[in-house]
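Form P-L/3: holo structure prediction, ligand magnesium ion.
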Amino acid sequence: MEDSGSAEIAKLREQIESLKQQLVQAQRLTALGELVGTTTHEFNNVLMTIINYAKMGIRHKDAPTRNKCFDKIFNAGNRAAKITNTVLGMARNRSAGQEPTDLKLLIENTLLLLEREMNKYRITLDKSFPEIPQAFIDGNQIQQVLLNLLINARQAMPRGGRLAIKLRHDAEEDMIDLIVRDYGAGIPAEKLPRIFDSFYTTKSGPDASGKGGTGLGLSMCRDIIEAHHGRIQVQSTVGKGTAFTLKLPTVTKATRKCAPVVVPVTSVPGAVGQPMVSGK
Ligand SMILES: Nc1ncnc2c1ncn2[C@@H]1O[C@H](COP(=O)(O)OP(=O)(O)OP(=O)(O)O)[C@@H](O)[C@H]1O
Ligand SMILES: [Mg+2]
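OUTPUT (holo model):
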């Protein structure tokens, strides 16, 4: 009797494990689907630039105009190559795992994919990228996190607004803080503890750009950040906006190979108020 009970429990555990694996796979595909949607638009944009400048070059025979056209075509071509490389990297999940990474470059590459979308929704970007040590991260995974945070922020400001992205070195903990702050709708205090739950969403479905609504974004972000021995924290005030802070290890911190230090959550200087909820 007891034996059959523990066999049953073992079987259920196995099933849960298998379902978890399937969920992780589904989350990856969702993120990839979003990325492909975004990049197809962006890629089309670049192709239009190339076609239009090629036409101009064919029409105008003078050297200065042609040189300008070649310049524009060259730049657009480079941009197209960067875009496809990003998608291919993510599709193959080609990541070499966690490695020293320039976060500024990673953010710029991610913003490249969202440029058109941010313009369309009249979002202005405020970037603050001082010189900081390299982070020890899986670039593809952190890019997925960033995409979700940036798209969430954009969706919180349906009539446009300001989105601030900031990097800083927390010297005390030797961690890199990556802050994504919007000045949008904010999250009511009673909902804040639920936002990292799988399938928790307040969106009725994908928006006009086909984004959002599964409620897996932040739970995926939390899983990825935990796998990096980092933390994800949020502060929000209704009507004022929301700030997400990612704390990621520097190369020196990660290679010191000591157990991750658990530091109590304290307030982030300059954050937008209200209680802070940690995704961990
Ligand atoms: N920047 C933000 N401002 C306001 N609310 C937010 C913000 N970020 C997240 N939320 C709230 O948290 C919920 C969960 O976010 P999450 O990214 O996990 O899912 P989602 O965006 O609804 O769907 P998806 O899985 O497609 O990302 C959102 O539905 C929204 O209510
Ligand atoms: Mg989301």
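COMMENT: The CA atoms of residues 83 and 168 lie 27 Å apart.
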